[in-house]
Amino acid sequence: MAERFQAPRGTFDVLPGESLARAEVYVAAAELFARAGYGRIETPAFEDTDLFARGVGQSTDIVRKEMFSFTDQGDRELTLRPEGTAPVIRAYVEHGMHKLAQPVKLWYWGSFFRHERPQAGRFRQFNQIGAESIGSDSPLVDAELILMLDELFRELGVPGVRLRLGSLGTAETRAAYREELRGHLHAHEADLAREVRERIDDNPMRAFDSDDPATRAVMAEAPTMLDRLDEADAEHLAAVRRVLDQAGVEYELDGTLVRGLDYYTRTVFEFESEALGAQAALGGGGRYDGLAKQLGGPDTPACGWAAGIERILLALDTDRKPPPAEVFVAAADAERERAMLLVRDLRQKGVHAELDLAGRSIKGQMKQADRVGARRTVILEGDGPAQLRDMSSGEQDEVELGRLVEVLGDRGEEDPGA
Ligand code: AMP
Fold first, then answer.
1. Which stretches of the chain score pLDDT less than 70?
2. Whose CA is nearest to atom 12 of ligand 1?
3. Distance in angstroms (rounded) separating the CA atoms of residues 304 and 260
4. Residues of the chain with pLDDT > 90: what percent?
5. N or C: which end of the chain has fewer CB within 10 A?
6. Of all protein residues, whose CA lies closest to atom 17 belonging to ligand 1?
7. Which helix (H) or strand (E) is 30 found in, with range?
8. 90 φ/ψ angles, rounded to the nearest 5 degrees
9. 398-407: buried (b, 16+ CB within 10 Å) or exposed (e) per residue?
10. Is any ligand 1 atom within 6 A of the Cβ of residue 310?
11. Could you tell me if the CB of 149 is within 6 A of ligand 1?
């Protein structure tokens, strides 16, 4: 026998039963963004490798070990996008969107790729919804984005949602803070996990992410960025908090919140769900005022978030039955083609109509009509009138062939015989 294939490690197929819930998430997001004036942007699935190396940061896990990178036939160094913010900023700069009224508010939905160790809720190809608001440093931008993600989870009914909020200050205050943190880590070097020890110099803040108990004990004593914010950054955070407080959105202030990407400044936040296991993060984001300039564009403040669609679906009860058919057309062998045309006409009128495509007997077709949940079944058996059966009452009426589309095309709200 020929060898069979499986989907590549860390990937998955979305089967019809699961795609319904996925589509509901899409519709909820699209409506939420439309109400807030966000325009949908689509960027390519791959970009220049340097965009991520420079944008996401050389010292991040993503760039160090998780990128699907390749050299194409033209010797270009390309990478399947591991995240959406650097590509969106690349597009903002490339299309001169800084000339538009600011901020430019964009959202996206698509696949992302990271070579991580697969586990429940963690894949190598996964999907994200994301939002970016580019061109204003107002704390209202940060607040609006957080309120929207909170609203999305509420509307979808995601259970056990918690929000953590922090601030990473500006590049300067963070540099001074990092120095102080390096001092703290070096002073306790012997107690740190090897991974953390090796990265004291290039990325000391990632030590807050460690699961190692001894490292966590050291980090519990460490100063946090929140203790070191300058006046302007502290006021910016306070303003974001005032809006959240007034809106009744609860959060935990967390000075250890470190996101896996280097570009953040000031606000950072992460939503989690208690309904998820080890991979509890639903989505998060923050402000990245330095990124556009770093990518060769004008100095442009911006803020955004991304949420994992598979994580949202895992947290929700996503068992959805396919919608039942409105009409099933059963036909004797000689009438099968007529049945196909009737179904076509009904579908054109917006009716969900199905028919047998597997050569079943009339009896078998009635069973199939039950399986697809048909409310009504038409039986075509000859040149005479068709039989129209109401599947719940079992009542049966005759309808002239010429009137079938008219009778069934009214979506069957009234008595078909009337
Ligand atoms: P990040 O940009 O890493 O903060 O990712 C934003 C969100 O995307 C996370 O909170 C997760 O919900 C989701 N996510 C990130 N990486 C993965 C992955 N490998 N598999 C599934 N979902 C992911």
1. 259-261, 411-418
2. 308
3. 14
4. 82
5. N
6. 122
7. helix 16-35
8. -55, -45
9. ebebeebbeb
10. yes
11. no
